[in-house]
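Milestone 3.1: sequence recovery, worked example.
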């Protein structure tokens, strides 16, 4: 019977060793990646960022179009046939005219101001896209680093479990333990193997996410993340509040909309004043030898005063849109402060978890495990107490590592909410936007 359990136990250990060596060999061939490298590639190649920047470039081009004068208008006509007899030089045979609207009221400049405000909104939208993509990239990077750390912890726990199993096997051989103890070790080993497959799946998912964000093939190989030093100095609530109100893209967009609607109110009022069109016309008579027999000049303009309801309604519409934009800014400010408070609380909570697990829970669990190990080896504790202490230590170490990743991801979210570089992460070469 002892021979059977020993053979079964060795088979379990052999399968664990093979899986561990195979995974270690495949990982040794992978290159390491840094957070700075990943974020630089994302900023340069991410399609969502490039799309937003192109839209901003298109919005800038619209400013020049809106500020330009109306096109010069040229017309001409020539006699095709005449079915009556007329005296020489009695009718015009050819006529050429040139007409240009002169924007004396400055409506084109107001339209350019509207387009400029829209370009500012497009720029802030591009900045929002950058912030969101960077937050996703950093969170995915930290989750990937956490998955590798969990994998390392899992394999260390396999080694620890082997030591536990070896001790229980030795005690079983001398009759100081029963057959249930090696079986319990086998069950724990099976759980660790199952957990390892879940961790490998998480690694694959985060690698795919990062490849997509970097605009690479999802199946492209990606190395293991390097250890990243993150500054833990988080701005105070007052500092973060001031930074958010001054830099958050949504607030900037709401302010740009107000500027846009103010320009539209001015434009609706100036629509009451027509812009004159100057016209120069050259005519040639039917029997004339000169190139131009007559040269005329004139001025024309629209008459908006005969349709007051139309233009009054346009002014009212512009004022209502301006009031709506002002309320929109108030709403955006309130929502932004709410998001900021939540983000700060998330950071503080995650930091508390990190410090609690790092400074108290994990060291205590490790001491308890070592004490139970010594007590079991001296016959003063049961195998169940020892294996329970080992499982508790394993779970707390995994949870502590998870809280570190959550804390770093919360810092990335905080920077995205504030809308400014808080100097928390390694600096990257941002794509210049002017």
């Amino acid at each position: 019977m002892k021979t059977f359990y020993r053979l079964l136990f060795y088979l379990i250990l052999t399968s664990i060793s093979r899986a561990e060596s195979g995974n270690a060999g495949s990982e040794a061939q992978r290159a390491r990646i840094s957070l700075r490298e990943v974020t630089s590639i994302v900023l340069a190649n991410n399609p969502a960022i490039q799309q937003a920047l192109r839209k901003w470039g298109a919005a800038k081009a619209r400013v020049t179009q809106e500020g330009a004068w109306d096109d010069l208008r040229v017309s001409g006509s020539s006699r095709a046939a005449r079915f009556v007899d007329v005296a020489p030089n009695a009718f015009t045979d050819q006529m050429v005219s040139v007409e240009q609207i002169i924007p004396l009221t400055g409506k084109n400049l107001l339209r350019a101001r509207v387009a400029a405000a829209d370009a500012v909104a497009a720029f802030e939208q591009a900045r929002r896209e950058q912030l969101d993509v960077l937050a996703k990239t950093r969170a995915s990077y930290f989750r990937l680093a956490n998955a590798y750390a969990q994998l390392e912890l899992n394999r260390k726990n396999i080694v620890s479990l082997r030591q536990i199993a070896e001790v229980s096997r030795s005690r079983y051989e001398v009759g100081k333990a029963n057959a249930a103890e090696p079986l319990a070790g086998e069950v724990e080993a099976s759980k660790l193997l199952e957990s390892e497959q879940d961790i490998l799946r998480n690694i694959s998912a985060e690698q795919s996410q990062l490849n997509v964000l970097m605009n690479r093939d999802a199946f492209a190989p990606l190395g293991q993340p390097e250890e990243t030093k993150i500054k833990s100095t988080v701005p105070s609530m007052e500092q973060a509040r001031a930074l958010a109100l001054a830099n958050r893209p949504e607030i900037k967009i709401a302010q740009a909309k107000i500027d846009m609607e103010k320009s539209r109110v001015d434009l609706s009022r100036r629509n009451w004043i027509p812009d004159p069109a100057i016209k120069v016309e050259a005519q040639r008579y039917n029997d004339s030898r000169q190139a131009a027999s007559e040269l005329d000049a004139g001025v024309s303009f629209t008459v908006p005063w005969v349709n007051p309801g139309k233009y009054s309604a346009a002014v009212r519409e512009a004022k209502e849109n301006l009031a709506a934009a002002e309320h929109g800014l108030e709403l955006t400010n309130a929502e932004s402060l709410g998001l900021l408070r939540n983000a700060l609380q998330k950071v503080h909570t995650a930091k508390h978890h990190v410090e609690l697990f790092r400074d108290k829970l994990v060291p205590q669990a490790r001491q308890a495990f070592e004490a139970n190990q010594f007590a079991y080896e001296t016959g003063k504790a049961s195998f169940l107490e020892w294996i329970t202490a080992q499982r508790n230590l394993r779970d707390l170490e995994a949870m502590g590592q998870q809280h570190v990743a959550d804390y770093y991801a919360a810092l990335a979210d905080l920077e995205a909410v504030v809308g400014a570089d808080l100097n928390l992460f390694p600096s990257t070469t941002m794509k210049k936007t002017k």
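The two ends are 79 Å apart (CA to CA). Confidence is low (pLDDT under 50) at residues 1-29, 429-434.
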